[in-house]
Structure formats: structure tokens, C-alpha cells
Amino acid sequence: MGIGIDLGGTAIKGGIVSDDGKIIQTLEYATIPESGYENILLTISRMINELRERSESVSEVGIGIPGVIDAHSQMILSCPNLGWKNKNFKSDLENKLSVKVNLINDATAAAMGEYAYGSGLGASSMIMLTLGTGIGGGIILNDQIISGTHGVASEIGHMIVGENFYDCACGKNGCLETFSSVTALKKYIDLQLQNGIPSNLAQYDMINGAIIFDEARNNDQLALEALDRMCRYLGLAISNLNDILDPDIFVIGGGLSAAGEFLLNKLIGSLQRFLTYKDLAQPQLVLASLGNDAGLIGAACLKNYH
Amino acid sequence: MGIGIDLGGTAIKGGIVSDDGKIIQTLEYATIPESGYENILLTISRMINELRERSESVSEVGIGIPGVIDAHSQMILSCPNLGWKNKNFKSDLENKLSVKVNLINDATAAAMGEYAYGSGLGASSMIMLTLGTGIGGGIILNDQIISGTHGVASEIGHMIVGENFYDCACGKNGCLETFSSVTALKKYIDLQLQNGIPSNLAQYDMINGAIIFDEARNNDQLALEALDRMCRYLGLAISNLNDILDPDIFVIGGGLSAAGEFLLNKLIGSLQRFLTYKDLAQPQLVLASLGNDAGLIGAACLKNYH
User: Fold this and answer.
1) B89-122 as b/e, with b when 16 or more CB fall inside 10 Å?
2) Per CATH, domain A121-289 is 3.30.1330.10
3) Interface touch A142/B144, C-beta < 8 Å
4) What are B's interface residues with A at a Cβ cutoff of 8 A?
5) What ranges do the domains of chain A cover?
């Protein structure tokens, strides 16, 4: 049994997770970044106390953080959604509680969840890509979480895979997430609509991933082309990762993975084009299975992987 | 004390290596690929016996192989320079000898040597790039060699980093080694000379890495531009690797690394342009220090890393 917390920019989710990876109880509070560091700290410590009252004795708590955690000091170096920099969150929280606190990047927490109880079950090395407004990553090799020397490993979304018509928020040009995230799809479709390309997508005030996939299934040419472009770069990136790490399995998660087999088949086709050793090393490529719970479950089972 | 063998396309080098990483004795025989698998097997077993007679009791031998070794069966799946496919080299050799044989990809063996006794000394995670006619790689994370599920990890030279005017030998377009190897430099300079770009390089019947660096130091504009292009893509690739794995240190080896600080400074400048977290994660970037001995030394110390 473990306790996991998923600290997001809009909500803090906490849960008690059984030893076979099932969420037994959950709590959810709103995240109010403007309330400041101390108040969020207090909210989380209250949540942990409440979960501990409802669970058997738990001596460690795992927390997924949407930011960079220093590998040695465990200090949160940067957490843009909450406006935090250089926060001793772990020790500040431990001072309020009588449990050990383990921090993990939120995308890595989701990977950990899928690895331990989801689509990565049985693998000993796995790379997860989380396709949402950005692209997150989590890497587990030989049963070890790869966090890197400075805590910035698995930033797969910032791998440069080509030249793009707009720059990434990180300041670089060509990052994977400017080609293959929801944001990237929307920007590309907006550009093409502005260029006068005819499409059903023009009728929507706001488009999202689900609408784009729906219109692609209805054979809308712009939607199809945008998804092909997204999958081309994603296949290229996965092939690069395969050349570098050759893991047992790649797991595709995040909001866009809701498109299911339609996305997966396009992606497998794209990956085949870019694989270096087609005869020797065909990686498995599957959809994530734990949905939004992956991060919470992964944070809760972190105690088994250090 | 250990015995290492570096099996290359033109020579088989063997050596006795002390526990502090010094080569005490060496043997070198020519590799004659046309002589066939059995003869090369015999040559190597003879070499190992000779080295064992000269050394203290050694119960394991490490051999660097220029090919793909299956991670589970240790079978050599592919070894293009020798024309080998699916060879049970390890067990065939063990049947002739009374020692345990450990196989390792030759680029990874070089990385292992630098990690244990060269420029990676003291690091716990290291990526080595070997710049020669192609680009090889070796990855060590948390003291573990990353060979991959199918034995094709660390194929850094096949990471796609852009679009190029010629295809890679692997069949893909845009592989790092088509931008940043000796072969890539020569092809690019040939193209530019054919395009009528004036350069001192036009006077040579055959150019090589040393000539290109010499002319660049003499301020030849084409040589400088070719090296800048090479370093631009290499910096991009190292930044990608840093985003994915965030290791302690990157080590640059291979023939081109003989250009020393001139290359290193260009490369550091290029890497700075592409780093995602300039404030948080500055990777170390250094030249290899063991030269051509790295592979032999790495193969010999392989016994300490499994």
C-alpha cells in the first residue's frame, strides 16, 4: 500500500494505492498557484495526513512534480506552472509530517505507473511519451528510473527533429513538441486555414485533439495531413530513441492517446519508415492503459524503486 | 589484470591490461575477412592462449566486436566488416578455450575504456561519441552499460538530425554520421568544390580529417564552413542526448578528436546554442584520452561490469 500525490497546475490529486496498483481512495483539491508556496505546502500536507488516517501505516509518500528536481539535493529547481524556483519542497514537507517524501517529475511518475502496473508490465526497459499540450517523457532502463545528473533527463519533447515555422517555448526551433503535441496540431491547422486550405475544421471556434481526430476519421484532408505530419515527426523521434536506448517497449500516453488504434496505426507506419535495424530490432509500441491515474499510481509505487 | 581483444576489419589487437588500466603487453594479427569465420576464430583463440601464457591466471576475456550482439543470447547478429551473420562466436570460442568470453560492441568497448580509465574517470554516467569514417556511440548510465533489448542501443550515428543531400548507408536520410563523420566532411567538401567554391582543399588528390583541420586553422573558408556545419549537427545531437539522458559527461573520441581543442571549442559553442536548460544543466564535454587503446582496455575491464 502506498500514497501518491499528483501535483498539477490546476488540481492536486492524492490517492491510496494498493500493492497491486489499484487506487483505493482519492482526494482532490484545487491548485491555486497565486495562493503561494506556503499555502500549497499546507494543502498537500493536510491531504497526506488525511490519506494516512484512512490507510494502513505508510512510511513514504511519492509526489509527482511538474518541474525539474535536482537529482542530488531533491530541491525543486524549476516549476513554471506554479512559479516556483529553488524550493526545498521535500524537506519543508517532511518537517510538517512524519513520513519520508520522494519527489519525481510528473511525466516520469506516469511512466513509472505504466511500467509497474500498466502497459509496461513485464518489461525491464520502457520509454513513455505523453502527448498533451506539450510532450513529456519518462525513461526506465534495467528497472532504474533515468532522471539524469541534473534532473533534466527524459525531456523528450525538446529533442530537435527538424525545422519548424514557429519556435518552441524553450527558445529553440525544431523541438518534437512543436510538431507532435496538441498545441502543435492546432498551430499547424491554424496556419493552413489562414493559408486558405479548405477544411471542416474551419467551422469550429476552438479545435482540440478529439475534434481533429474525428474530422480525420471523416476523411477531412487537412485533419489527415496534420495528423500525418505529427506522426511523421513522432515516428522519427521514437526511431531516434530506439537507436539510442533500444528499450523493450514504447508507451504512448497523454490526452492525444485517447485517439486509440487510429493514432497507433499511423504511428507504427511512420516508425517503420525510420527504423535503422528493421530486421534486428522491432520495438513494441503500445498505448498507455492507466489514463490520468498513471502519475498518481507511479508516485505511490516510487518507494519500491530507489 | 585482464585480457582484451579489439577485433577490427583490418587488424585483431590483443592485450594484457593491468588493474589500473595500463596495457602491459600487446599482440596484433591481420584480419583477413576472406579467410572465413573458422580461421578468424582460430587466430583469436591462438592470440588469447598466447596472452594467457604471458599473464597471471585470467578467467575471463573481453572482445570488442564491430557489429550487433544479441543482448540475451550473446550471438553476433550482424558484423558487416567481416561478412558475419548469426554467429555463435562466444560459445564457439569458449569451446576452444578454458576461459569465459564476454562480447561487447566495439564503440561501447571504447566508451567502457574511457569510463573506467580515461576521460570519464569519476563519472557515473557517460556518453561517448566516436568520430571516424562513421559515428559510433557508447552509453554508460549509473555504472551500467546500455546495450539495449536487441543489442542495438547507442547507435548515436543513426540519430536523424536534419535533411541531407545524400542518404546514409543504412538507407535513411539525415543520420548524424552523414553530417559529422570524416566521410560526411569529405562528401560535403567534394560537393562544394564541384559547385566551384574556391578553396585550398582543391589542390589535394585525397583529403582527410587532418588536412581539413589544418586548412581550417589556415583560415580556408570552405574548410571552416565544413567544420562549422559538422559541429552544428554534432552540437544538436549532443543536446538531444542531453535532453534524453542528462549524463555527467560527454566524451569525444575517434580519429577526428585528434583535432583537439580546435574541435572541442567549436563543439562547445555549437552545443550552447542548442541546450534546453542552459541554467540548470550544463553537461561536461571533453576529448577522449586513451586514443586507439580505449577499445582494448574497455574490453579487458568488461569483466568488472556484469
Assistant:
1) bbebbeeeeebebbbbbbbbbbbbbbbbbbbbee
2) no
3) yes
4) 68, 77-78, 125, 137, 139, 141-142, 144, 146-156, 158-163, 170, 172, 236, 239-248, 274, 276-277, 280-281, 283
5) 2-113, 121-289
Measured between beta carbons, which residues in chain B are less than 8 angstroms from residue A172?
A: 274, 276
| A2-113 against A121-289: fold identical | yes
CA-CA distance, A14 to B252, in Å (whole number)? 45
Contacts of A173 in chain B (CB under 8 A): none
CATH homologous superfamily of B119-289 equals ATPase, nucleotide binding domain (3.30.420.40)
* Cβ neighbours of B240 in A, within 8 Å: 159-160, 240
- A265: number of Cβ within 10 Å: 11
Predicted local confidence at residue B9, as pLDDT: 85
Q: How far apart are CA A6 and CA A104, in angstroms?
A: 10
User: Which CATH architecture does the domain made up of A2-113 adopt?
Assistant: 2-Layer Sandwich (3.30)
Task: Return the number of other C-beta atoms located less than 10 Å from residue A232's C-beta.
Answer: 20
Average pLDDT over residues A130-146: 95
- Residue A14 near residue A5 (C-beta atoms within 8 A): yes
Q: Residue A154, SS3?
A: coil
* pLDDT score at B6: 96
pLDDT at B117: 97
Q: Which residue of B has its CA nearest to A237?
A: B160
- Per-residue pLDDT band at B74 (split at 50, 70, 90): very high
Q: Do B276 and A170 touch (CB under 8 A)?
A: yes
Could B152 and A277 be called an inter-chain contact, meaning their C-beta atoms sit closer than 8 Å?
yes
pLDDT value of position B306: 67
The CATH architecture one would assign to domain B2-105 is 2-Layer Sandwich (3.30)
Q: How far is CA A132 from the centre of its chain?
A: 8
